[in-house]
Design a protein that fits this description.
heterodimer; A: mainly beta; seven-stranded mixed sheet; four-stranded antiparallel sheet; 0% helix; 52% strand; B: mainly beta; 10 strands; globular
């Protein structure tokens, strides 16, 4: 059974960089046809896609966050990571990592395996 | 930019049928995917593609689409269906977008 687990600091100071890692177990991050994504959810609010990466390095970023986000993958460790720079209180959220699949013809995408999520609070 | 619009809240009587909708221009070209999220938990994939359910998802949940609107229908709603429901899709640039979510109350 595929499992994903987020890890990283739960408290980040304003203007600093948020860094999280997602460790994948029970399967390979180098699996064909799957991207690996980050999604966040501010307290009491909805889901926001941050970005997704393929094991070969192809990356898609949410245009609204693109200037501050870096997503990378380490296939040797079966991990992928998120860095979000210049954080503010608005970046306080539960951050999820998830596996992203899609239809054979690109006509749909889905996130089928999710980590439990980790709360990151931005505060001095 | 791509946006998906959902009604913030919907209620349904126990055992009745409810439809949760998701609207957006991207849905004219791509199917919506649906997730169920209960408090304190990660979202769970419930519908993807034309109308596909992952293993373990009851068949009282179904998906459909027409024009720029996708729908999640729960036929014979149960107490355990009370949750937040999110749609998502992609756009032509490969970006992913989520709807704002619908809080379903079963009364």
């Amino acid at each position: 059974q595929l499992q994903l687990q987020e890890s990283g600091p739960g408290l980040v100071k304003p203007s600093e960089t948020l860094s999280l890692t997602c460790t994948v177990s029970g399967g390979s991050i180098s699996s064909s046809n799957y991207y690996w994504g980050w999604i966040r959810q501010p307290p009491g609010k909805g889901l926001e896609w941050i970005g997704s990466i393929y094991y070969s390095g192809t990356i898609y970023y949410n245009p609204s966050l693109k200037s501050r986000v870096t997503i990378s993958v380490d296939t040797s460790k079966n991990q992928f990571s998120l860095k979000l720079s210049s954080v503010t209180a608005a970046d306080t959220a539960v951050y999820f990592c998830a596996r992203q699949g899609g239809g054979d013809y690109g006509d749909y995408i889905y996130f089928d395996y999710w980590g439990q999520g980790t709360l990151v609070t931005v505060s001095s | 930019s791509s946006e998906l619009t959902q009604d913030p809240a919907v209620s349904v009587a126990l055992g009745q049928t409810v439809r949760i909708t998701c609207q957006g221009d991207s849905l004219r070209s791509y199917y919506a995917t649906w997730y169920q999220q209960k408090p304190g938990q990660a979202p769970v994939l419930v519908i993807y593609g034309k109308n596909n359910r992952p293993s373990g998802i009851p068949d009282r949940l179904s998906g459909s689409s027409s024009g720029n609107t996708a729908s999640l229908t729960i036929t014979g709603a149960q107490a355990e269906d009370e949750a937040d429901y999110y749609c998502n899709s992609r756009d032509s640039s490969g970006n992913v977008v989520f709807g704002g979510g619908t809080k379903l109350t079963v009364v």
